[in-house]
Design brief:
Residues 98-117 are annotated as: Disordered. By secondary structure, this protein is mostly helical. It has helices at 2-5, 8-28, 36-52, 60-72, 78-85, 94-97, 102-116. Helices cover 70% and strands 0% of the residues.
Length: 117
């Protein structure tokens, strides 16, 4: 499932938007901003992810590793996130990522049976 979640389809546009927005954001950031180093590291990771994401199966592990490093650095700048996702917080359609399976249906049947009793 992680492969589905980290697929290029889901990541490509947001990562490109972050990569496009980072230079101007970093330029506007004061040199002594306490988050500057972290944001510069995030920008470097985004660029590296974009460079390897189209490499097919052999690069999946590298993309996962880079995404874990990005995640470990915390949230990207709020201004960039808003630019990428608008004012709304990023919400992922979990049903699209984790399609309904038999286990969901069986739990529904169990609930229906309990309701009928």
């Amino acid at each position: 499932m992680l492969d589905t979640f980290l697929s290029a389809t889901l990541l490509h546009a947001p990562l490109h938007a972050l990569a496009d927005g980072f230079p101007a954001y970093l330029e506007s950031l004061p040199a002594d901003d306490p988050d500057r180093d972290r944001y510069e590291q995030q920008y470097a990771l985004v660029q590296e992810i974009l460079a390897v994401e189209d490499g097919g199966e052999e690069n999946k592990a590298k993309v996962h590793e880079l995404m874990a490093q990005f995640h470990a650095l915390g949230e990207p700048p709020e201004a960039l996130v808003k630019k990428v996702h608008g004012e709304a917080k990023l919400e992922i359609d979990m049903a699209a990522v984790f399609p309904t399976g038999e286990e969901d249906e069986s739990s529904d049947d169990g609930e229906k049976a309990a309701d009928e009793e």
